[in-house]
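Quick one: structure tokens for this chain, please?
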Amino acid sequence: MASVNPFNLSDSEEEAERGPNETADTERSPSDGAPGPPGNPFSPPADAEPPALPLSGNRTSPSGEGICVSASAPTAMAGTAETRISVDGIAAQLLKDQYILTALEFHTELLEAGRELPRLRDYFSNPGNFERQSGTPPAKDQVLGPGGPLSECGSAGGDHRLLLNRAGSISTLDSLDFARYSDDGNRETDERVAVLEFELRKAKETIQALRANLTQAAESEIPSQERKNFKSSPDIQEPIRPLEKRALNFLVNEYLLKNEYKLSSITFSDENDDQDFELWDDVGLNIPKPPDLLQLYRNCGSSLTSPRERVDASVGVDLGDLSEIRFAQEPVKKPDLSQQVLVQELEYQLNLLSGEKQSLADQIKKLQRCLHELTAVWPFGSLLCYLAVRAIYELLMTLIANVMDSTVTTDSNFGFGSRKLSPAFQQALLSFCRMCSDSRLGAEVSRIADNEDSVMLMLGRCLPHIVPNVLLAKREELIPLILCTACLHPEPKERDQLLHILFNLIKRPDDEQRQMILTGCVAFARHVGPTRVEAELLPQCWEQINHKYPERRLLVAEACGALAPYLPKEIRSSLVLSMLQQMLTEDKADMVREAVVKSLGIIMGYIDDSDKYSQGFELMLLSLGDPSERVVNAVHQVFIPAFAAWTTELGTLHTALIPSLLARIEKLLKQGERGLDEHKLHIFLSALQSLTPPLFAVVLQNAPFTSRVKLHGDIPAIEVTRFPRPASPLQDMATIIGSREMLSALLLLYDHQLEHEGTTGWGSLLWVVNQLLPQLIEIVGRINVTSSTCVHEFSRFFWRFCRTFGKIFTNTKVKPQFQEILRLSEENVDASAGNGILTKATVPIYATGVLTCYNQEEDRKLLVGFLEDVMTALSLSHAPLDSLKASFVELGANPVYHELLLTVLWYGVVHTSALVRCTAARMFELLVKGVNETLVAQRVVPALITLSSDPEISVRISTIPAFGTIMETVTQKELLERVKMQLASFLEDPQYQDQHSLHMEIIRTFGRVGPNAEPRFRDDFVLPHLHKLALANNSQSVESKKIDISIHLFEAYSALSCCFISEEVMVNHFLPGLRCLHADMEQLSQEHEVILSSMIKECEIKVENRGISISIASSLVGEDAKTKFLSKMGQLTTSGAMLANVFQRKK
């Protein structure tokens, strides 16, 4: 007999070939020949576990070319040779005979062996092979017929698709990503939240369907014939069903617990140890919980509430339901922008994910308990049901793992991670994200829909606004539509296109439009998570980094900061930081660089890679050196406070950051011996000033008393003037510490510690006292005292420093160190040798930066005494007065100190030493410019007149510059006449005719104040007396005096030549004085003589042109203006440059 292939025959053909006696024989399973029920080769024994499905008990590896059919088959085949059958033939026969599970396992083993079979792949990847012909489930007798559940599918000529319920999973075998479930651990997870939600919804639908089927099967355990018997005989009560018994048990146990029958409840639970009384779902799947026993008793005569009207709180909650509830309960009021919206949204997301995770975990536990019951409930298809549930279970486990990973990732990226910033500082830092949610559209953008239903609701809200406005440059109305679609669209290419449209929606977006786009981007980031933000939003920013329109680049810069909380930390500290650094160095628009600096500050609030410290420091210096003032302001307002907060956490604020700035200042001073770069000094010093509040916060937080802080009880409010006004909320001490209550409590303990307990063991404060202050004072002594800019910068720094650290610290720690260096003791005040430190910038900075911090009476007395001592010491030691002048200039800029400075000067006016009186007279010159005329009339002029009658001629001469300044600045005629009379007495009194020093001082003063003085004073007083002095100098016999007077006259006439001088004064005084000076210069200086000749010639031309212009004007009277004017113009022989002077008006 020829070899027979048992797989070449269908079931019907095999039955036709069997004899009558063979039909009664037991069929053998294709797996191993074990006997099984007739007509159902897939049914295992009733008491057996779900078996595996091997093709044969004697088979080769799937990688072999075929399968050997051994002689263990029928005896008739014992003598035949082995025949090898192709793998594809086996697969075809299995599919033809509807051995679907065997074919599935065969296909799986082939895949594991790396030999994929196209026939099996195509079959199992086609969902149509597993669908029913109609949407209704098959009748029970169809599924449980004599031939088994698969007998209907195996008939010849019938439909070869398997009549099975299609699984709710979205994945077929070939659509599954096997690498996703592999254990190699090398593939990065790029799951998308939207896909996960979709899979979860599908898995839930499958579970719900399974619940319904299981419950229906449990309810139908009693045979239908028995039910008919019970219905026909009402006297016979139908026995309790298992489901009813479990429900009643649950209600009884609940009643016992509620009424304090705890021992009875424990006993009852022990007697029903197969039931979980803590979970209603253990009673039955998909069954609502009824009211308790008491409610059932009370309502036994009335109709009970329909299950549809009740809500089962213990059943898993659907994401869509939660989102609808959230939108329905969302208040209409305008949402808060910064911390409130962020915290509420994060708490909602975390609670949502936690609830979903717990719900899925509970469902998995119930599925595990149900697995052992499936065989008893469905004995006809235990293997099929087992495999289906196992597949769903594995899919759910994978999805839950992904959700948990997503939850952890979301939680770590939406917050500040491992950073320990105070909530107030976080809120203030995030307030620099330029978002807008205080309008209808802003609120719409900030709450992105997260399911299909809410998308439709959002469309209904937005479309009425879009239609009438989209053609009128109101394209921001499209932002909610674009974002929602980009969030929920499953195709990456489509999402990328939508986000590209979003960033290119408006050609040059204005401030409001950019805020809308940024608000939408933040809402998108909250919804999709860090992975999609990195993959989808960041490329859009990168594409626009070099856009030709600054508004688009500004959008990119602002987006980098707004998206920082939602990016992976590795991307924040690498790609985003590099993008912003590139824009800071290359962008030419000030507003773009300003936004870049603010975004860098926000990045510094989230970064936790300590290796990026040096890069952050360089970015700080780079941005501080920006030529734009608005960029520098942004550095002080946002970047430096955020960077300081990071260095505080790293512990490097006072160990690395501040010492680095001090080292750069010292290096700058060493290089500045040939000329100090004041701009760089300003950069470094302003950075130190912005770091003062964080430094004080470090001192407070590391103090010995931090453990004794108590926030309850009466905590006094902080004085408004306790701290300097901060440049931004991030520099507010209350924001840095965390709250005003905490700051107030710390300040109380801080002052008490300094005043009574000292600084022992207080490392951070000891560093400030022993290292920072001495280094700063040393730097102050090395700067140039004549540089008013440097003095002002350091003075402002010390003022803010002392105000921040408090009055007790200033009096006990700062002032003693300055006083030790200045050495203003009684024995040194009158020392003739002088004191070198008094001539340096230490004096004005101590006076204006430290002594003016507090304005109480004792502080003012201390300042007055210090200035008096310095004036006395410098005068008696004949030292330069630059340090005293710098102090007066800095203090005189503030009207609050005018009375105080006049008090100091009056001390000098009445001093016994002429040297001190001379110094006082010269200081009046500096003070007059800023003092109001009332004080000048009441305090300054009387003091100067007193000094002008001083016995010492040097004192009288010293008053001349101050009198000249009064003539330059004061407008009161009476006051000017008094000053004019005093100056005239100096010039006309015979006792001063030979006073060479007095004449030089008057000439120098006239040259300084003449151009700005009143024209009448200049024409009637200054120029005539200069003429007299020049004429007298012609007859000077002492050549040295003659040279001094000539040089001063030359400078005075050079300054006055720029003024408008009347023709009379020009002819009678100015030109004659120039000619006298020219005569002297011919003998003394050839260079000056040439310049004077040119000046004399120019003045003569001016006089000549004025005469011609006067004659032209007179001849035009009564004649045709145009004709006569042109004819007269032809008579002019002057050059074009001189022609303009013809029409020059008198000023």
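The longest helix spans residues 339-377.
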